[in-house]
């Protein structure tokens, strides 16, 4: 372990924070100038840009084949879990997040449906090349629907339209692109530095792959959503996570399966544990998001707690620890029932909220 490794870690963090600041500032100003709802910016430019590290890592793994397939799939599934449980949880713990009705009615169900689709397509332990191209086609359809939906819902101003200041738009486009570049470089430095430090400390490469790679490529989402929450850009904070998860499935996994020789192999472990956890995290968003159209601090802390449980399970399972049977027992007979009770309570509260809202109308 050299001083250069620590320099990469610190330098990567600095670039991530600077890139997140530029990205949130530039994209939110573009939205304001063009009259585009911030949630659309969060679902497209910000979300897709911050998912660039996942795309680079997964495409590289797909082209290498064999073990690289596990990197491609694990990176997407792990990043989606990190996005919801860690990043969304942390952002909500910083400040309660407002959730737009459009996000709840359209984009979150799409995220849940795509998560289920990947599990169904992978039941034969393989994602074929044509299935990869199918995901890419669905990506094009999703992007088209986002922009069509924005055009239909954008209010028409009375009187003559005032042309947006061209220089302001160009400047903020430059800021947004510069922010994306800093995020990508910062994530790369941080992942490489943290991996070298972890190896020097004797941490297994399997644990590194399950945590550092998936978590490291999600650092742009973490920096962007946390900073957006602090700055009050709450639509971007939530839209960034949902959009990133959709992009990870359709673009990152889609292109990886399309270009990988013979498609992508899916391990039984991924089918039995990681994909179901990704689906469960996505489904858990529905009742929580519906509740008063906000994510409260306690709900954010609950997401963080579940992420810690997931990381603990990965560690125990990968090391074949003696405590794994006890952990599984506690998980299935204590944590899962309490979780279902909490989700049911949140759903009932949501239904009561909508009933009161309809009554007042």
What would you say about this model in short?
The protein is mainly alpha-helical and 361 residues long. The protein has helices spanning 3-34, 38-50, 52-64, 67-94, 101-121, 129-153, 166-200, 205-217, 219-231, 234-259, 268-290, 297-318, 324-360; strands at 97-98, 126-127, 264-265, 294-295.
Describe the structure in your own words.
This protein has helices at residues 3-34, 38-50, 52-64, 67-94, 101-121, 129-153, 166-200, 205-217, 219-231, 234-259, 268-290, 297-318, 324-360, and strands at residues 97-98, 126-127, 264-265, 294-295. The chain has a single domain, classed as NCX, central ion-binding region (A middle domain of Talin 1). A two-stranded antiparallel ribbon has the order 1-4. A two-stranded antiparallel sheet has the order 2-3. The chain is mainly alpha-helical. The termini are far apart.
């Amino acid at each position: 372990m050299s001083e250069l490794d620590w320099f990469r870690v610190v330098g990567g963090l600095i670039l991530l924070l600077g890139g997140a600041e530029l990205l949130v500032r530039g994209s939110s100003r573009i939205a304001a100038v063009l009259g585009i709802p911030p949630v659309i910016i969060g679902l497209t430019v910000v979300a897709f840009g911050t998912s660039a590290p996942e795309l680079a890592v997964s495409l590289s793994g797909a082209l290498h084949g064999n073990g690289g397939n596990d990197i491609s799939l694990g990176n997407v599934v792990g990043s989606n879990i990190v996005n919801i449980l860690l990043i969304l949880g942390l952002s909500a713990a910083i400040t309660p997040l407002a959730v737009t009705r459009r996000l709840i009615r359209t984009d979150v169900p799409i995220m849940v449906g795509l998560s289920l689709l990947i599990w169904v397509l992978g039941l034969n332990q393989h994602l074929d090349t044509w299935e990869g191209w199918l995901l890419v086609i669905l990506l094009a359809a999703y992007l088209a629907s986002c922009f069509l939906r924005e055009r239909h819902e954008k209010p028409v101003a009375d009187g003559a339209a005032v042309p947006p200041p061209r220089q302001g738009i160009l400047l903020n486009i430059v800021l947004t692109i510069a922010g994306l570049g800093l995020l990508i470089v910062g994530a790369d430095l941080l992942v490489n530095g943290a991996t070298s430090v972890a190896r020097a400390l004797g941490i297994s490469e399997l644990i590194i792959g399950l945590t550092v790679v998936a978590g490291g490529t999600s650092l742009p989402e973490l920096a962007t959503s946390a900073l957006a929450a602090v700055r009050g850009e709450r639509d971007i904070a939530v839209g960034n996570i949902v959009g990133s998860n959709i992009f990870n499935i359709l673009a990152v996994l889609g292109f990886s399966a399309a270009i990988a020789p013979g498609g992508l192999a899916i391990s039984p472990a991924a089918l039995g544990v990681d994909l179901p956890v990704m689906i469960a995290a996505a489904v858990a968003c529905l009742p929580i998001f519906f509740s008063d159209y906000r994510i409260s601090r306690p709900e954010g802390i609950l997401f963080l707690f579940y992420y810690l449980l997931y990381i603990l399970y990965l560690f125990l399972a990968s090391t074949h620890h003696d405590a794994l049977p006890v952990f599984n027992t506690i998980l299935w007979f204590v944590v899962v029932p309490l979780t279902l009770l909490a989700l049911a309570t949140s759903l009932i509260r949501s239904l009561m909220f909508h009933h009161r809202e309809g009554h007042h109308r």
